[in-house]
């Protein structure tokens, strides 16, 4: 009798299986009722559901009043203080955030993996340690969410790709180990776009956090809009207060754009400051043309500072070779700063809310006694630096190769951004001649030479104006309808520079709907 041939499961079945596995990790008592779901128009992604102002998590009835207070009233500093003085226990804080994250997942699809049971066991261990008068570290008992590309032993790091399904991580990423040593409790991993920030047809990948494995992550302020990406799951979860502090990564705006779209704080440090090694990627190993970086998202600036102070204090260079060994330090602030303002690029006009906020910010800073230096578009070089970024990203086909290997289709947002790139070619010509006859190595040489030239121009501009810092638009717009975010010119140009002075923070702009 011949052997039985089993057909390969379709990508839809494989994705559905993973989605069901994720759903099954949410305890029955934490699942929102059909009656509660019926209070919002469905599907959520097609309607303007505001899950924040309607207090959807409170009305779900899943969290107790004490759990709502823990997750709704404390900032990171307050949580750590309450954990230290014993007014809150690690176990109850972890339980509260686990339940809130579970409800958030059912509303906005922000999670990819949950570690609820393991997190609760760790929290109990940390409480026992505290009872002995000991602490694990400065983050003792603090729940922290992490982006899906971080490896956490025993979970998957699929980054929303079918080709990575069913591969359990056998080790932690270095930053994960550092956070655990500092006393943190890691309890969820968060959603990302298909291929994260890899290229598609020689242009940027979408910043819509949508993939075929975990589906579309929604914006909690308006579920018909996207949360940005590629750390969109982090932005969405934190906006719903399902995490006090999260860790994302950024290679073209992936921390800053979700911070903008979801109304959180996000900080993209210079590359090599925070451990970024040992993670799941969607690029060819060794092809690191623009360096990615890891960084925090939080609802308060205290969370951002505590993250950096703690991680830098752990001497991360001894755990990860991608990091330089530079300690955390506080720099005395001058009474008056010289602040450069990156001009609106005429090729990428700003939407009114973004333009208005940039103007208001400069007026507020000026009123505080700071000197404002308005940079011309020629000095800002937004389009020129983006040319370099787009060119470099186009050199690595790994993202599309993984899509093909998984037998899955390209998500709509990727096709949209490709069409946008094609339109751009019609009215803007690159600053170099045709490169179609060059091989990849020769193209890289052209891009790197141009990048070095632009970085030197920026250095000269910085010195000429004697700048202390620079502010810039975070994007052309705030959150937009699904699959329409488009190119990220006002974040990607900073990745091309990667200058220490551009430790960039996306602050709240206002309305997200």
From TrEMBL:
Cross-referenced Gene3D superfamilies:
Amidase signature (AS) domain
Q: Which part of the chain is the Amidase domain? A: 92-498
Question: What protein name is recorded for this chain?
Answer: amidase
Q: Its catalytic activity?
A: a monocarboxylic acid amide + H2O = a monocarboxylate + NH4(+)
Quick one: which residues bind substrate? 196, 230, 251-254
One Pfam family recorded for the sequence = Amidase
Per the record, the similarity remark reads: Belongs to the amidase family.
UniProt GO MF annotations: amidase activity
Which PANTHER family does the entry link to? AMIDASE, AMIDASE-RELATED-RELATED
Its keywords, alphabetically, are: Hydrolase
Catalytic positions are 147, 230, 254
């Amino acid at each position: 009798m011949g052997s039985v041939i089993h057909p390969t499961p379709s990508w839809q079945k494989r994705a559905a299986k993973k989605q069901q596995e994720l759903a099954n990790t949410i305890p029955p008592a934490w699942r929102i009722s059909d009656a509660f779901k019926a209070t919002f128009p469905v599907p959520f992604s097609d309607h303007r559901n505001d899950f924040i102002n309607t207090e959807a998590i409170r009305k779900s009835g899943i969290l107790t009043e004490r759990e709502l207070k823990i997750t709704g009233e404390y900032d990171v500093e307050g949580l750590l203080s309450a954990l230290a003085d014993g007014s809150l226990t690690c176990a109850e804080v972890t339980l509260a955030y686990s339940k809130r994250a579970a409800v958030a997942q059912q509303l906005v699809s922000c999670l990819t993996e949950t570690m609820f049971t393991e997190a609760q066991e760790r929290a109990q261990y940390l409480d026992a340690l505290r009872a002995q008068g000991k602490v694990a570290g400065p983050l003792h008992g603090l729940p922290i969410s992490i982006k899906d590309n971080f490896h956490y032993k025993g979970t998957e790091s699929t980054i929303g790709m079918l080709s990575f399904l069913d591969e359990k991580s056998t080790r932690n990423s270095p930053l994960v180990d550092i956070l655990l040593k500092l006393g943190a409790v890691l309890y969820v991993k968060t959603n990302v776009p298909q291929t994260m920030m890899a290229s598609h047809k020689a242009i940027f990948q979408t910043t819509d956090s949508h993939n075929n494995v975990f589906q579309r992550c929604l914006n909690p302020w308006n579920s018909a809009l996207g949360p940005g990406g590629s750390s969109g799951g982090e932005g969405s979860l934190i906006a719903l207060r399902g995490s006090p502090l999260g860790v994302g990564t950024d290679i073209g705006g992936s921390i800053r754009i979700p911070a903008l779209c979801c109304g959180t704080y996000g900080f993209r440090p210079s590359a090599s400051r925070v451990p970024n090694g040992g993670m799941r990627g969607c690029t060819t190993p060794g092809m690191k043309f623009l360096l990615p970086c890891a960084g925090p998202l939080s609802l308060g600036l205290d969370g951002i500072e505590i993250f950096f102070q703690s991680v830098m204090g752990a001497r991360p260079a001894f755990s990860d070779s991608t990091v330089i060994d530079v300690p955390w330090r506080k720099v005395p602030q001058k009474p008056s700063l010289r602040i450069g303002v990156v001009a609106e690029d005429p090729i990428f006009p700003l939407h009114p809310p973004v333009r208005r906020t940039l103007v208001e910010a400069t007026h507020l800073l000026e009123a505080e006694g700071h000197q404002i230096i308005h940079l011309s578009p020629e000095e800002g070089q937004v389009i020129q630096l983006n040319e370099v970024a787009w060119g470099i990203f186009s050199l690595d086909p790994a993202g599309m190769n993984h899509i093909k290997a998984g037998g899955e289709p390209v998500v709509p947002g990727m096709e949209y951004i490709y069409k946008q790139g094609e339109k751009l070619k019609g009215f803007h010509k690159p600053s170099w001649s045709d490169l179609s006859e060059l091989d990849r190595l020769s193209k890289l040489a052209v891009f790197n030479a141009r990048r070095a030239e632009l970085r030197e121009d920026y250095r000269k501009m910085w010195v000429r104006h004697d700048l202390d810092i620079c502010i810039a638009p975070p994007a052309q717009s705030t959150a937009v309808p699904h699959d329409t975010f488009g190119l990220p010119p006002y974040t990607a140009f900073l990745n091309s520079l990667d200058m220490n002075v551009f430790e960039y923070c996306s602050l709240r702009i206002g309305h997200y709907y």
